[in-house]
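Question:
When you can, review this sequence-structure pair and walk me through the tokens.
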Amino acid sequence: MKITKDMNIIEVVQKYPDTIGVFMYAGMGCFGCHVAQYETVEQGAMAHGIDVDALVDALNEVIEASDEPAQVAAE
């Protein structure tokens, strides 16, 4: 697991841009808010009534999928 609930939201988005969609889907446009510079993933999730563990799992799924090497079809 690369992303944890105690990580800063901006830190997550900057390091893993693919996570923006997860935050948006969860109803958290936090990465555009100045509070996100100081707020952790857990604090943001709590403020929006989101299950933090489910959010962290989804964030990690996205970055793990983007880390997988592209499959090259054999010709």
